[in-house]
Design brief:
- The protein has eight helices and five strands.
- The protein has a five-stranded parallel sheet, sandwiched between helices.
- The structure holds shikimate-3-phosphate (S3P).
- The site of shikimate-3-phosphate has 11 residues, from helix 1.
Length: about 170
């Protein structure tokens, strides 16, 4: 099977689902945030603080360009990666892109109490999510080959559905 790329908003479950899906399909797994943290020896929060978001976005694009050489890999990407237009061509070439879609209420529930995401710090969580979603939703829809709704579904159910969709198409 070609590479599979999981995109979606923070809290959509990309990393959890990606790991499970890779295990299920006996594929390799890469998470762009984890990979950047490993290579930079530093958390995403610290990269944002010390180097700024623009620099982080450059790191994402540079990593994505390297992932173009991947095979048989499930790749979960940070929520902001598909927003950069220059990443679209890479995504298209790397493999099949699945948008893990979640309603705002689901995201608020999943993201409240979490302190690790720089773009959600300070201010009211629901407001921040609404603002970012307004900017990103249509981009996710456009970039994705497949959209999968994840609300009220367990990770196991989502992986079952993904396996069915992806295997029907391969
Ligand atoms: C971001 C999402 C995060 C991480 C960074 C920025 C975003 O990844 O890349 O904090 O802009 O949506 P997750 O989507 O895995 O939380």
């Amino acid at each position: 099977m070609k590479n599979i790329i999981l995109i979606g908003f923070m809290g959509a479950g990309k990393t959890t689902i990606g790991q499970k899906l890779a295990r299920r399909l006996a594929m390799d797994f890469v998470d762009t945030d984890q990979q950047i943290e490993k290579e930079q020896h530093c958390t995403i929060g610290k990269i944002f603080r010390d180097k700024g978001e623009v620099q982080f976005r450059r790191m994402e694009t540079e990593l994505l360009s390297r992932l173009s050489g991947c095979e048989h890999t499930v790749i979960s990407v940070g929520g902001g990666l598909p927003v950069r237009t220059e990443n679209h061509e890479y995504l298209k070439n790397i493999g099949k892109t699945v948008y893990l879609k979640a309603e705002k209420e689901t995201l608020v529930e999943r993201l409240k109490g979490g302190a690790g995401r720089p773009l959600l710090q300070g201010g009211e969580l629901e407001h921040k999510i609404t603002e970012l979603m307004q900017k990103r939703e249509s981009i996710y829809e456009r970039v994705a080959d497949t959209v999968l709704k994840t609300d009220q579904k367990s990770p196991g159910q989502i992986v079952d559905e993904l396996e069915r969709i992806l295997c029907d198409e391969c």
